[in-house]
Write a structure and sequence with these properties.
By secondary structure, this protein is α/β, with parallel strands linked by helices. It contains seven helices and nine strands; from the N terminus they run E-H-E-E-H-E-H-E-H-E-H-E-H-H-E-E. 27% of the residues are buried.
């Protein structure tokens, strides 16, 4: 049985982090301790849950675990590898949230010089983009539950999910979960 971790911010921690978020009017630099803890658990192959208020970095606590693992596995050429197949599927119930998450992930990938493609799949995704995704999945796919259901119902869907060690974060309003399946 796989170990499970739970990281949940207490009211006291939430208050402390809220006061630490800005220093002299600029965004806080560096990760929060709970993000680093989530990365460590993830890299050790544990599945888990991160629970924190909106805007406190749940996305990065799970997303960057996948990126860190990729960099660790490809230390000499991670900045050059493209077309690696699906590495992360992020399920979100809100289409508008998908766009915001996608932009944040793309920005982090740019800063880390990781040339991964981030794709979004929802009811608003044009047919041409959906067809391209079927042929060549991006490394990161942000998808709504309805679109995932449709994708899984299609003929030959397993071919679309050929990858190594996937990450399966799911997002809700204030709660992200991930499985570090091998």
């Amino acid at each position: 049985m796989r170990e499970f971790f739970l990281i949940s911010l207490s009211d006291e921690t939430h208050t402390r982090l809220a006061s630490d978020r800005t220093v002299a009017g600029s965004e806080r630099a560096g990760p929060f301790a709970f993000q680093e803890e989530a990365w460590e658990h993830y890299l050790q192959g544990r599945s888990g849950l991160v629970n924190a208020p909106t805007g406190f970095g749940k996305t990065f606590s799970m997303f960057l675990g996948t990126v860190i693992r990729w960099i660790n596995e490809h230390p000499k050429d991670y900045q050059k590898l493209t077309g690696n197949g699906l590495r992360l599927m992020w399920v979100t119930p809100l289409r508008a949230l998908a766009k915001d998450i996608g932009r944040a992930m793309e920005e982090a990938l740019r800063e880390l010089n990781v040339p991964w493609a981030v794709g979004i799949r929802s009811g608003d995704t044009p047919l041409s983009v959906r067809e391209k995704q079927k042929r060549n999945m991006p490394e990161v796919l942000i998808i709504t539950p309805e679109s995932l259901h449709i994708l899984l119902a299609q003929k030959e869907y397993p071919k679309r999910f050929e990858y190594r060690r996937p990450s399966w974060p799911m997002s809700g309003t204030n709660c992200w979960a991930a499985s570090a399946a091998s």
